[in-house]
Design a protein that fits this description.
The mean pLDDT is 97. Helix 2 packs across helix 7 and helix 3 crosses helix 4. The chain folds into 2 domains: 270 residues, Aldehyde Dehydrogenase, Chain A, domain 1 (3-Layer(aba) Sandwich); 187 residues, 3-Layer(aba) Sandwich (Aldehyde Dehydrogenase, Chain A, domain 2). By secondary structure, the protein is an alpha/beta fold. The structure holds nicotinamide-adenine-dinucleotide (NAD). Nicotinamide-adenine-dinucleotide binds next to helix 8.
């Protein structure tokens, strides 16, 4: 049984708390490693190491810091397959999807290579008589991030790349479900030239998170995960005086207008609903066709596509559409929610409950499910299922469809499929959701834009990556300077007493 470690002060360090969590192989249902769960003392030690290392890193000029990230990008590309393999083994997602996870993190690292440009301050020459004003962006000091299981490469990189580029030290508390890739990333960054103590990985659960929340040295916390935990971390972190941004759960609606290309909409829904077994915060989990005829046509197109989905382990090759869900508990929760859907009167059009994969009977595979006639009072509509379950809510009009997406408590992403520019434009303008796709089912913005939801999907006022990240990981100092007049008259030739 492999025992994983923490990564503190440039070395793999064994856990000393005596507490561990099992790291599963979701495809086989076997325990493949155990990960240490840090105590408050272990976290505090890492914070002290970070605090000692950070001032020297902040003093390295931004271009040199960026060069470490440049080298890191090379190393990520060199080790892409190795990282993706470790990621698939612990998470369960397919190998190409695991590479995508690394790639979308890498793109934010590439963006952060522009740190010298992003960190330039502002300058006003002659703001008053002999007065200049300038502002600079300075690092916060020791920063921390708490990340979810579903993107174990991408989301840590979204946090630590800008934090480090800005001259901070960063402590990563990754998900205890798939901690290996974060540990590998820390090793690669050190190989790229990052000084010891600037990126540390401290594994753990609630105990380690609370140690982050209560440590007075930590200046900022980034969190991505479920909404109840996001709310908890935001509340406690803010009341402890930290800068906090938390990104939570989702229930993303895709509206299908009668004029949409129905094949295109069905293909998009199948990829966005079932890809990564639905374990994406930008997955589409609710389809909202407008008009009964649209709904009937859509369902007719969806059913054969869903029945054809290939579910399997990442080792089965690139034509697998999605893999197992992350834990047995997640599988049971998904099947429980499916049952509530049936009990509360939704029509189960594709039933994946009996799905079994020969040779992988103990794996956490869940068959694809499609519901029709879902209503807004049902649990499957209100709850984030985070599994391969797509609900169809029929709307009579565009306004009714828009209202469903607007009234849902989550506001991470949404999409509309239509050929009509006026409808698309109206939708983009009026919807109260942070990321909008027009004929794009998963509108995850690229690295140089920002990522973030609205309503119960995000807490705090800045988004992830893009220019917002440079704001989040720095604070502004503004200097107003007036210099008394100097020796503009030239040299003194006569010996005079001092006065
Ligand atoms: P989670 O909330 O269970 O865990 C996230 C992190 O919080 C982990 O590091 C975990 O160790 C820690 N944690 C768990 N319980 C805690 C507690 N009681 N106190 C303190 N810390 C605790 O989330 P998950 O299951 O790992 O990830 C899935 C969730 O993340 C989904 O809700 C998904 O929508 C969301 N997510 C959101 C985004 C986004 O950008 N909005 C992106 C990815 C995932």
């Amino acid at each position: 049984m492999q025992e994983l470690s923490h990564y503190i002060d440039g070395a793999h360090v064994k856990g000393t708390s005596g507490r561990f969590a099992d790291v599963m192989n979701p495809a086989t249902g076997e325990v493949q490693a155990k990960v240490p769960l840090a105590s408050v003392e272990e976290m505090d030690h890492a914070v002290a190491v970070a605090a000692k290392a950070q001032p020297a890193w902040a003093a390295v000029n931004p271009q040199r810091r960026a060069r470490v990230l440049m080298k890191f990008v090379d190393l990520l590309n060199r080790d892409m397959d190795k990282l993706a393999e470790a990621l698939s083994r612990e998470h369960g997602k397919t190998f190409p999807d695991a590479k995508g996870d690394v790639q979308r993190g890498l793109e934010v690292v590439e963006y952060c290579i522009g740190a010298p440009q992003m960190l330039k301050g502002e300058y006003t020459d002659g703001a008053g008589p002999g007065i200049d004003i300038y502002s600079m962006r300075q690092p916060l000091g020791v920063t921390a991030g708490i990340t979810p299981f579903n993107f174990p490469a991408m989301i840590p990189m979204w946090m630590f790349a800008p934090a480090i580029a800005c001259g901070n030290a960063f402590i990563l508390k990754p998900s205890e479900r798939d901690p290996s890739v974060p540990l590998m990333l820390a090793e690669l960054l050190e190989e790229a030239g990052l000084p010891k103590g600037i990126l540390q990985v401290v594994n753990g659960d609630k105990g380690a998170v609370d140690a982050i929340l209560d440590n007075p040295v930590i200046q900022s916390i980034g969190f991505v995960g479920s909404t109840p935990i996001a709310e908890y971390i935001y509340g406690r972190g803010c009341s402890n005086g930290k800068r906090v941004q938390c990104f939570g759960g989702a229930k993303n609606h895709m509206i299908v207008m009668p004029d949409a290309d129905m094949d295109q909409a069905a293909d998009a829904l199948v990829g966005a609903g079932y890809g990564a077994a639905g374990e994406r915060c930008m997955a589409i989990s609710v389809a909202v066709p407008v008009g009964d005829e649209t709904a009937d046509r859509l369902i007719e197109k969806l059913v054969p596509r869903i029945e054809k989905l290939k579910v399997g382990p990442y080792t089965a090759g690139d034509d697998v559409d999605y893999g197992p869900v992350v834990t047995k508990a997640a599988k049971e929760n998904i099947l429980r929610l499916v049952q509530t859907g049936i009990d509360q009167g939704a029509k189960l059009v594709v039933d994946g409950r009996d799905f079994k994969l020969q040779g992988y009977e103990d794996g956490f595979f869940v068959g694809a499910h499609l519901f029709d006639n879902v209503t807004t009072d049902m649990d499957i509509y209100k709850t984030e299922i985070f599994g391969p379950v797509l609900s169809t809510v029929r709307a009579k009009t565009y306004e009714e469809a828009l209202g469903y997406a607007m009234d849902h408590e989550y506001g991470n992403g949404t999409a509309i499929f239509t050929r009509d520019g006026d409808t698309a434009r109206d939708f983009a303008s009026r919807i109260n959701i942070g990321m909008v796709g027009i004929n794009v089912p998963i509108p995850v913005p690229l690295a140089y834009h920002t990522f973030g939801g609205w309503k119960k999907s995000a807490f705090g006022d800045l988004n992830q990556h893009g220019p917002d990240a440079f704001k989040f990981y720095t604070r502004t100092k503004t200097v107003t300077a007036r210099w008394p007049s100097g020796l503009k008259e030239g040299g003194e030739f006569h010996f005079k007493p001092m006065d």
